[in-house]
Amino acid sequence: MKKTGEELTSGVLKKMELTRSEQGKSLPTIAFVLLSEDEIKKRNFPYAKIECARFKGKLPEILLIRKL
Q: What three-state secondary structure class fits 23?
């Protein structure tokens, strides 16, 4: 992976639940599609976006970081 320097293997994708096995084939999950810049994402989820936030403590009262 570009950000971490780790090699993106099929085992890593499965561990992160970005692929699943079905009838002996490895298939991408919806999470994989949403994280990609593939044409499938653009066609099926044209308005989808991922937002991440980090809060202080257990309640979402104090926002520390927000990424779009």
A: coil
24 torsion bin: left (phi>0), alpha (psi -120 to 50), beta (else): left
Q: Is 11 helix (H, G, I), strand (E, B) or coil?
A: helix
pTM for the structure as a whole: 0.64
Distance, C-alpha 50 to centroid of its chain: 8
Tell me the pLDDT of the chain (68 aa) as tens digits.
Answer: 666 777 888 888 898 899 999 999 999 999 999 988 889 999 999 999 888 888 887 877 777 777 76
**Token pair for residue 30?**
């919806």
